[in-house]
Amino acid sequence: EMKLLPVRDSIYYICLVKTYGERMKESTMTIYTSEWERLSLEEVFTPPVYDDYWKKNEHTDVDELKRLQALQDMRFITMKLYPDSLRLDCILQVGEVMDEERERVGDMLQPITFYWKEGCFVKR
User: Fold this and answer.
1) What is the distance between the alpha carbons of residues 124 and 120, in angstroms, rounded to a whole number?
2) What is the pLDDT of residues 10-52, one digit of tens each?
3) Of 56, 73, 43, whose CA–CA distance to 110 is shortest?
4) 51-60, 94-103, 109-118: the lowest-pLDDT one
5) d(CA 121, CA 85)
6) Residues 39, 52, 80, 86, CA torsion sign
7) DSSP characters over 11-72
8) Beta strands, E only, 60-119
9) pTM value?
10) Residue 74: its pLDDT value, please?
């Protein structure tokens, strides 16, 4: 996926998201100037930490949450750009877990949404 991201006036960055894999997918993101000079990703994006992907509220069973998090021994993140907005979603894939745990883990995960604002991705 590619997207032009406005920086100022008529200046844009080019965002390139590559997603690899069949069953377990993973994405990488690269940002370029309009002259195809690669920017340091840290300048425009701070990736979420593992804990951010898990839904938590006052009713969350902390022990169950920790147990489900421990099942995710491999952490694959996919990214999605949207054609009609300046939105980026980061999604933690459900890992190789037993079928009976797959739905429980999936129910506890949430995408992390960012919006392009003033030259960088800002977490919603």
Assistant:
1) 12
2) 899 999 999 999 888 999 999 999 999 999 999 999 999 888 9
3) 56
4) 94-103
5) 13
6) negative
7) EEEEEEEEEE-SSS-EEEEEEE-TT-PBPPGGGT--PPPGGGGB---TT--HHHHHHHHHH-
8) 77-81, 87-92, 112-117
9) 0.86
10) 75
Q: What is the DSSP letter of 86?
A: S
The answer to whether 90 and 81 have CB atoms below 8 angstroms apart is no
Residues β-bridged to residue 2: 16
Query: Letter for the amino acid at 55?
Result: K
CA 73/CA 39 separation, integer angstroms: 31
Buried b (16+ CB within 10 A) or exposed e, 31-45: beeeeeeeeeeeebb
pLDDT at 60: 73
